[in-house]
Amino acid sequence: MKTYLYSLIVVLLFSCELFGQTADEQYIRQLSKEQTISWNKGDIEQFMTGYWNNDSLLFVGKSGPKYGYNTTLENYRKNYPDTVAMGTLRFDLLQMKRLSALYYFVVGKFHLRRSIGDLEGHFTLLFKKLKGKWVIVADHSS
After folding, report:
1. Which of 27, 39, 101, 107 has the fewest Cβ atoms nearer than 10 Å?
2. Which CATH number characterizes residue 73's domain?
3. Counted domains in the chain
4. Using CA atoms, how far apart are residues 52 and 134, in angstroms rounded to an integer?
């Protein structure tokens, strides 16, 4: 019985690795889900907890690179001043690639369903593990 349970555990752990479900990837996927929930509640501040709260945070959008957590937060507030502008967000994570023990690269697609016109595009995120938590240190959304 012990051999069977041990074999089953090994198979399950191996399967999780094969299908992109490492603990780190699960953390990043959960963070993405939490950001979506926060956005859809109209809570930009809570949405931003997934980002690195630092002046070196990089956000690249249609107006080029901008630096800083506060700058990024203010740009979100300016571009999405209310729940009508924010709409309903959906993320699709298309690729997650571990670059090292400290970095993950993520490619995804976003879709905002809005009464004033839908928006959609793609994004690339660079995550860094800081103090045991994964945070977005660079975001390029278009």
Report:
1. 101
2. 3.10.450.50
3. 1
4. 9
